[in-house]
Amino acid sequence: MHPYRTHRCGELRKRDVGATARLSGWVHRKRDHGQLLFIDLRDHTGITQIVFQPDRAFFAEAERCRLESVVTVTGRVVAREPETVNPSLPTGEVELVAESFHLEAAADSLPLQVNADRDYPEEVRLRYRFLDLRRERMQRRIRLRSAVIASIRRRMIEQGFTEFQTPILTASSPEGARDFLVPSRLHPGRFYALPQAPQQYKQMLMIAGFDRYFQIAPCFRDEDARADRSPGEFYQLDLEMAFVTQEDVFAAVEPVLHGVFSEFTDWSVTEPPFPRIPWREAMLRYGTDKPDLRIPIHIAEATHVFRGSGFRVFAGAIEKGAVVRAIPAPGAAAQPRSFFDRMIAFAQEQGAKGLGYIVFAEGEARGPVAKFLDPVRLEQLRQAADLEEGDAVFFTCAREAEAARLAGIVRLRLGDLLGLVAEKTYRFCWIVDFPMYEWDEQAKRVVFSHNPFSMPQGGLEALETRDPLEILAWQYDIVCNGVELSSGAIRNHKPEIMIKAFEIAGYGREELEARFGGMLRALRYGAPPHGGLAPGLDRIVMLIADVPNIREVTAFPLNQQAQELLLGAPSPVDERQLRELHIRLAPEALEALAAAREAENAPTASGGP
Known about the structure:
Elements: E1 20-32, E2 37-43, E3 46-52, H1 59-64, E4 70-79, E5 94-105, H2 122-127, H3 129-132, H4 136-158, E6 162-163, E7 181-183, E8 191-193, H5 199-207, E9 212-220, E10 233-242, H6 246-264, E11 268-269, E12 276-278, H7 279-285, E13 300-301, H8 303-306, H9 312-319, E14 323-329, H10 337-349, E15 356-361, E16 364-366, H11 375-385, E17 392-398, H12 400-417, E18 425-426, E19 428-432, E20 437-440, E21 445-448, H13 459-465, E22 475-480, E23 483-490, H14 495-504, H15 509-523, E24 530-533, H16 537-545, H17 575-580, H18 587-601
Parallel strand pairs: 3-5, 6-9, 11-18, 12-19
Antiparallel strand pairs: 1-2, 1-4, 2-3, 4-5, 7-8, 9-10, 10-24, 13-14, 14-17, 15-16, 15-17, 19-22, 20-21, 22-23, 23-24
């Protein structure tokens, strides 16, 4: 017999009655019924109930055993009495009567309960992540993550993609976030960067002739934490294709995403082809380039309704460059006055000065704004916002970007409060036709708005003849339920276009050669038209698991302060390591390190260390 187990804890069934079995696992629960002791023994497959009889020599040891201790038990499989069958367990028709017992590893008192789904502070959960991961819901989520990745890998290979690995130690690149830098011991004063994405390498693979690449790629960005983004590292399905148009990329990705979401949930999933929404339309109709299509509310342009109107607050702002956005609230005319007051307070919390509204009910328009609009303007508003009797409509008035932002937030809030969000559904869409450039108000210059290696629509001619802020790019995002899963693009594959595109963004030829010489050199030797994208795996699993935070589907995440509490990263290093790397800490870094050590060694409220 195997020294640890003949079966796993979730495998015994009624067919095994009469057999001798050996199980190993963790003590999940204990119940002392006086003459009998019951222990639920758990491993990753499930739970089996163990019965300990008081005449056994090991009874007292089993009785003293703490929860989460690891034990090995050998015994006879017996059928439970009908009244004691547990239908909620696959093993609920049987139990194991212990004939031998061995304590493999004792557990200390627990800082969090594994056998309950209680909420604990994130610091406790991450510091004792090995315990948190033993909990059933976390086991389920992390195993789901593994299964999703396996499914994606299989689907990509079936489509003719080849999996490659790209370097982790690479050069710094302006991908839109701060790099994590790694000092070089062999090259004093120089640094590697952990890749924000394998962008240039995957393009090099296309130039090398590999045609269809994918990778389950680790990416590293030194940025603040958000619910849908880790502050340090994340994984993405990175892919690139040669000799393709934008539609070819969409046609390759849509079956993978539709398939994996359909495989692991019973929710409704958008059927391919997914809707294509131009960026400008998305910003107008949804107030964001990450629209949640589960909400049947479309924001409308209403500037013309208020221009020159008697509502001087809006009319005056319009003369100074503001726009007005109308956000319909279907059926909201039946809501009490407190509903509208709460909406105004909410908008003010989001940075708005206020929130105008009109209610259409009983054949008339009511509300603080309605009296300033004549019947013609009210009819224009009805038509623009597609309003019906019983609806209300809210307004934001500001510069275009701010009006869109506020309208988008109000739209989401209305969808939630009015119960308009479609349940158990995944709504995908592509956002297309992004601007190639945008104006950086702080730097007072034109900058790339998205990926700098994208192909401008119109190619070199557009770069040479058009206003940069009017040039569109072959760039796209894929969005699901208001969550951006990925950005992507058809890449620029011509060196003369790359030189001109970077010149517009303020990069001289010398700087371009210094920072992107490898890519520029590769383009000079025959690059195929190519494109791709990289959906975030953490976000995909987060959506499939229906949890609000990617830390719930990541085994060992950083916390919101970019700390890994289990092993204590980031950690100080000794002077020898610093000397080898030719690094000397700045005075402010030494002060911060000393303060952190002092805080760590400070006595707790109970007086202990």
